[in-house]
Amino acid sequence: MSLQCFRRQMRCLRQEGVRTWCQRHIDIHLIQPAREMTRQQVIVSAGVGFWGGLFPVPPCTMPATLFCITMYSAGVPKMQRFSLPMASVAVIINELSLPADLAMMPCFIMLGQSAYRSITGEDLAPCSEILKNIQAKPVETLRHFSTSFGLGIAVWTLTTPLVLGKIRVFGALSRLC
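Predicted structure:
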C-alpha cells in the first residue's frame, strides 16, 4: 500500500467516522465478493471447511482448516486459489461442523488404534473403554491414551491430500453441471 493511498484512507476515516468506514470496508471487501461467488467456489470452500472441521481434536479445528486452505491453494492457478469470501465460508462451515467432529472422534481413535496395531502388533485398550473413561476423567484418559489420539491425528493428516484432491474434482464437476 502506498503512502498516498494510506493517507487517503486515513482522511476518509476521519471524515466518515470509524463505524461507517468499517461498514463500507466490510461491504466492499467481504459481502460483495461473497455474493459474487460461483457454485464451484461455494462447494470447494464448504468442503474444505467441513474437512478441516473434522480434525480429531475439536478445539484445534481452526488451524486445521487454515492448513487445508493453504494446502488447497498451493500449486494451483490464481483463479482457483482461496479468496477472502471463500475462506470466510470455510471458517463458518468449520465452526458448524462441531457436532460431526464430536461424532467422528471415536472413529479417529479406532483408526489410531489400527495404525498402532499394524506398526507394533500390540493391541491398545478398546474404544468403548476410552469413551467411558473420557466422560469420567477426561484429562487422565487423554494422557493415558495419547498414542491413539496422536495416531488418529496422523491418519487425518495423511488422508488430507486425498480428500482435498476429491474436493478439487467435485469443484470442477460442479462447473460442468
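Summary: The chain is about 80% helix and 0% strand.
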